[in-house]
Amino acid sequence: MQIFVARLAGTPVFDPAGDQIGRIRDVVVGLRGTRPPRVHGMVVEVRPRRRVFLPITRVRGIQAGAVIFTGRLNVRRFEQRPTETLVIGEMLDLTVRVDGEPMTVYDVAVAEVKRSEWQVTRIAVHRGRRRDARVVDWSEVSGFDILQKDQGAAGLIASFESLRAADLASALHELSGKRREEVARALDDNRLADVLEELPPGDQVGILRTLEPERAADVLEEMGPDDAADLLHDLPPEQAAALLALMEPEEAAPVRRLLTYPHDTAGGLMTTDPVILPPTSTVAEALAHVRQKELTPSVAAQVFITRPPNETPTGRYLGMSHFQRLLRDPPSTLLGSVIDPSIDPIKPDLPLHDVAAYLAVYNLVAAPVVDEHTRLVGAVTVDDVLDHLLPEDWRERL
């Protein structure tokens, strides 16, 4: 049986008892000159986002939508050896030669040649477009042993297309610096912005510095203002100022406001784009807003009610209503009559630990932030509070 590796990405892995323990993220092979590479095993991502090694000798079955293994899984973090190559991370998108012509690799097939012994057997290549695709034997291909300056990343991105941004960020973090830059260049602005929001600060800064300034500014515009401000905080002041100047004025304005607050206060933590509506809007209109799939659960959990204008900084802040309350009232009910009077807003200068205590005391997932003129300037969500309370390297530890 022949298995194409790119199609294995994300496949669930089950133990002998039938419990899912993770998902396939890559396949590890050993290059052996002109001989077909031997498969050493698979990189499996287990909870919480830890990558471990599954030896190929323990794989007992690869079925449609499932990989089954026997024995016990060593949960020590996978560390790639110098003699090992990752099929998805390093072989896809390489330029190789087939019959003397340059071709691009977009998939690699492996097969069991003996019991528990797997090898790379065939290579799927194309010349510029997929309609020129061919599948050839390993023996017909040369060039895998040549270090390439610009490898491209279309094949790797295609194999991870269905991943959530957090999982793609985890995969990106595990790649070499060179491959990370190639993938970042190949992602569209919106997808790259989502991924950057999930990466550790060091990776964020490293990737942003590899982009052309104009594109870096475009990506910052696609990020949430609070995430963009956090990233700019980590850059040298002159570089941050240059990128802000390249951003569209209406996109840069909320980021500039956030940068005026210390990063460990409510103002530095808040998002400037919560759900805001006037008191004359109805419950039906509010539910339509929180139903938008691009909103995170913590932002969509409540509606803030203000006098116009209804963009931060707003008119006078009137109050908030949680979506559970909205579900209990008739759709035609005006928001002005469903305001929760027991929740007082907080000030932008409230320290991080006091913000956390406020959310805990009132069992909230977001808190309204108002300025000295009682205008709503943003909302602090529980996920942003956790992000700042956890150690700086919490993503790497995961």
From TrEMBL:
<dbReference type="InterPro" id="IPR046342">
    <property type="entry name" value="CBS_dom_sf"/>
</dbReference>
<feature type="domain" description="CBS">
    <location>
        <begin position="339"/>
        <end position="396"/>
    </location>
</feature>
<dbReference type="InterPro" id="IPR038076">
    <property type="entry name" value="MgtE_N_sf"/>
</dbReference>
<dbReference type="InterPro" id="IPR000644">
    <property type="entry name" value="CBS_dom"/>
</dbReference>
<dbReference type="Pfam" id="PF03448">
    <property type="entry name" value="MgtE_N"/>
</dbReference>
<dbReference type="InterPro" id="IPR058838">
    <property type="entry name" value="SH3_actinomycetes"/>
</dbReference>
<dbReference type="InterPro" id="IPR011033">
    <property type="entry name" value="PRC_barrel-like_sf"/>
</dbReference>
<dbReference type="InterPro" id="IPR006668">
    <property type="entry name" value="Mg_transptr_MgtE_intracell_dom"/>
</dbReference>
<keyword id="KW-0129">CBS domain</keyword>
<dbReference type="InterPro" id="IPR006669">
    <property type="entry name" value="MgtE_transporter"/>
</dbReference>
<dbReference type="Pfam" id="PF26205">
    <property type="entry name" value="SH3_actinomycetes"/>
</dbReference>
<protein>
    <submittedName>
        <fullName>Magnesium transporter MgtE N-terminal domain-containing protein</fullName>
    </submittedName>
</protein>
<dbReference type="Pfam" id="PF00571">
    <property type="entry name" value="CBS"/>
</dbReference>
